[in-house]
Amino acid sequence: MKLGTEYHGLSYDALTAHTAFVFLRYMFMSVEKRDDEDDRTIGELFYCMVDELADITFNHSLQILVEAMFESVKEIFQPTEEQMERFTNAFISRLPKYMQEAISPSLAA
């Protein structure tokens, strides 16, 4: 920020004021930089267009994957209910403990 080279006064008050102006100038430059780079700063109209995606939780993503796998198995192999239950139990028992706990009871049954 060149605090030592821009100003050569000896007064503590003047040096404090100069430091405040340097920080103010830095804040203005930061705001201008953000205005140039980020569409969310253009205004309310464009802010709605640049919504960020919500974070998907581990449990939800695991649920989606397991449901997709089970639906594919049902469609391709057409197992009976007993075979599907055995497959489900065998699959879940091979998962790590934290994944077993993340799967909802509806799939575990």
UniProtKB/TrEMBL annotation:
Protein name from the UniProt record: Transposase
